[in-house]
Amino acid sequence: MPVSVIIGCGGLAREVYESIEAMTYASTEFLREPPEELAAVLASSIRFWSEIPTDAAPDGQPLYRPTQDDDAIVAIGDTRTRKRIMETLPVATWFCVYDQEATRRETDRERMVAVGCYVGASAVVGPNVYLGRGVVIDVGATVAHDCVLFDYSHVCPQANLCGGVEIGEGSFVGASAVVLPKVKIGAWATIGAGAVVTKNVPPGETWVGNPARLMVPRW
Ligand SMILES: CC(C)(COP(=O)(O)OP(=O)(O)OC[C@H]1O[C@@H](n2cnc3c(N)ncnc32)[C@H](O)[C@@H]1OP(=O)(O)O)[C@@H](O)C(=O)NCCC(=O)NCCS
Q1: Shared-domain flag, residues 123 and 92
Q2: Is 189 in the pocket of ligand 1 (CB under 6 A)?
Q3: Exposure winner among 45, 58, 100, 182, fewest CB in 10 A?
Q4: For 156-161, what is the mean pLDDT?
């Protein structure tokens, strides 16, 4: 079944688009006017939308809503926005896109529940990994065996989740961060790029560095 709507038109949406193109899906749409250079490479069958759907129009209504006939994926890096869109928009199917160059092990299919997820090129998803709704595993990231990634969490390029790691709802793991085995990252936490996380991170906190520590706000 083809993906008919990609919600978003930033860098992540372009990656998702490339993955879909490689899978020869047809009839892809973007919901925001794309940059000119992107427009040049997109097929003519693609329709463009001037606003993302949760941007309220003057009358308070979203400018576009995927219909019941659409299969959609939210390709927006901000985890709160992803959650907002997936919770507000009725669609027939939130589609999952796995890049054909991603490696995905599924020794326990029962546990693998993936709805509206994106797994980018060269990413590796190990055995017995659980993916919640709208999870993004970006290019080159590694999610080893027995990890649990709750809804809307986001693993940036080249990040490395060792075995048995838990990533809470909406949490964001920065590029090239490493999370050591069995560490739990609380909901809506942020892990800075390049951090090495050796201990559990409480919900909502931002941790950076090696070993990672709480980032203290300057104000
Ligand atoms: C951690 C992060 C969210 C903090 O962002 P921020 O709140 O805007 O923080 P600032 O840039 O104001 O930096 C605050 C301080 O933390 C330091 N800092 C920021 N990010 C850091 C990181 N990843 N590792 C170590 N220190 C970091 C800054 O040097 C600065 O230190 P200073 O006060 O001594 O000058 C961000 O820097 C980050 O790492 N984001 C991940 C980005 C990423 O991986 N994107 C992937 C895109 S594909």
Answers
A1: no
A2: no
A3: 58
A4: 98
